[in-house]
Structures are given as structure tokens and as C-alpha cells.
């Protein structure tokens, strides 16, 4: 059975607040739904990532992590009103990173990046995850380069800007091999270029339940990676790199 650490998926539970974003409300997707869909794999853990439609709510995340178990961690949308104690308490509950959704966010989101990233890194050693179309990276690259530990979602989404992703990888950024149905290019082509620079920089994610994606995640996306990389490379992409990134002691 193939081992995986899933570095990005969403849990959507309507017992907790869900906010319409750009006219979109996602379908419910509970921990049990996720585990059923991924039951063909040996799940070493994973990362529940807060979507834009969850705003600053963390109740759903604490609930989801309590169901999924100790090797699962969380990523939250950064709330500028958090006190240091709030952040420390969230860290104890399993949160390990903040996320900035620049693709669906506002200028206020961009303005927060540098300060917030340094704050949480210094306080609890969290990293920062960025959802951005890579062709838009040049306009904020100076801010991104000041982030202590940077992770880019979904291979940067666009072929036009992919060279910007490689530039960040050269500076130490991680990239999620996720959201294949959102891309306008071949993900294997992209992953090969990333690991040629740094074999530790790429982490797999299912992106379930693929909210707003042109096509949803397919189990064959995993096969695509497995069939195009040797065993050592696949292990790094599928779980070794992510276990280190999220500080999960398995």
C-alpha cells in the first residue's frame, strides 16, 4: 500500500461557519468522506487547509483534527487580531502554518504577508503558505523573499509564470504538487524542474474536495507521480518532505 502524507485538503463542515466567497459556497466534505476516498493508501497524516470560505473560523479545524488524529495538522487564514497567546494555543492544537489566499484575496492580504509571516515564525516556528497565480509573483516577490519559510500552492497554477516558481525554489521555497485540475501545464514537467533544483522542495497534496477546480482530484494523479519518478524521489514527494515541513514525528 502506497504511503502518503497529504499536504493539502479541505474539510467543510456546515456545523461551523462557511462564508460565501465570490458567489461560491462549497459542498460539505467531512473527515469521514476524506478517509473513505483515500482508503486505498497508507495515510501517514496530512494537512487540513483553511479555504477562503472559512474566513478566520478555527472551530471546524480543531474538530476535524480531533477526528483525523495526531499526525494531521492545520493551516489557518491569518487573523491580524490574534494575540500571541492565541497563536501559541493554536499551535498546541495542531496548527502549523498560516495561509494567504492572494488569488481570491485583497490588497490588505498582501500588505500583511511580511509582518505576519515573521511574527508566527519567530513565535511558534510556523511557515507561510501562499495561493497565487505564479505570473503575479513579480509584483510581490520582494515580500515573498522576506518570508522565513515559504510554501506555494498548486505548482503556481500557470505555465506563464512558472519560471517565477523556480526562482523561489532556488531561494528555499517549497511547492505543493497539488491541484492538477487547476493547471494549464503538465504537472510532471513542473515537478521534474523543481526537484532538479532541490529534491526536498516538493510535497504532494490531493486538494480534496477540489473546490472550484476545473476538474477534481483523481486517484490517477497519484499514479502519474508514482510512474514518473524513481522510488527515492517518490518517497520524498509523497511523504518524506512533508513530514519534515510540518514537523510531524511519525
TrEMBL record:
Organism superkingdom: Bacteria
Residue intervals of the Amidohydrolase-related domain: 10-247
InterPro entries with a match to the protein in the record: Amidohydro-rel, Aro_Compnd_Degr_Hydrolases, Metal_Hydrolase
Pfam families: Amidohydro_2
MF term (GO), any: hydrolase activity
Keywords assigned by UniProt, alphabetized: Hydrolase
Protein name: Putative 2-pyrone-4,6-dicarboxylic acid hydrolase
Amino acid at each position: 500500500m502506497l504511503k502518503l502524507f497529504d499536504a493539502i485538503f479541505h474539510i467543510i463542515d456546515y456545523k461551523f461557519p462557511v462564508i460565501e466567497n465570490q458567489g461560491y459556497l462549497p459542498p460539505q466534505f467531512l473527515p469521514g468522506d476524506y478517509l473513505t476516498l483515500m482508503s486505498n493508501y497508507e495515510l501517514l497524516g496530512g494537512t487540513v487547509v483553511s479555504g477562503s470560505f472559512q474566513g478566520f473560523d478555527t472551530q471546524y479545524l480543531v474538530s476535524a483534527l480531533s477526528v483525523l488524529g495526531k499526525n494531521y495538522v492545520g493551516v489557518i487564514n491569518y487573523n491580524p487580531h490574534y494575540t500571541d497567546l492565541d497563536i501559541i494555543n493554536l499551535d498546541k492544537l495542531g496548527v502549523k502554518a498560516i495561509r494567504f489566499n492572494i488569488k481570491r484575496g485583497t490588497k490588505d492580504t498582501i500588505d500583511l504577508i511580511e509582518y505576519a509571516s515573521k511574527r508566527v515564525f519567530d513565535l511558534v516556528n510556523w511557515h507561510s503558505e501562499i495561493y497565487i497565480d505564479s505570473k503575479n509573483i513579480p509584483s510581490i516577490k520582494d515580500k515573498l523573499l522576506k518570508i522565513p519559510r515559504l510554501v506555494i500552492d498548486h505548482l503556481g497554477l500557470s505555465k506563464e509564470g512558472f519560471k517565477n516558481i523556480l526562482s523561489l525554489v532556488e531561494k528555499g521555497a517549497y511547492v505543493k504538487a497539488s491541484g492538477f485540475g487547476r493547471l494549464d501545464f503538465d504537472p510532471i514537467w513542473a515537478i521534474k524542474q523543481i526537484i532538479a533544483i532541490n529534491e526536498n522542495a516538493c510535497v504532494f497534496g490531493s486538494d480534496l474536495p477540489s473546490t472550484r477546480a476545473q476538474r477534481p482530484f483523481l486517484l490517477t494523479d497519484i499514479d502519474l507521480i508514482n510512474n514518473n519518478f524513481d522510488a527515492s524521489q517518490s518517497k520524498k514527494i509523497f511523504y518524506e518532505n512533508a513530514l519534515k515541513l510540518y514537523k510531524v514525528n511519525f
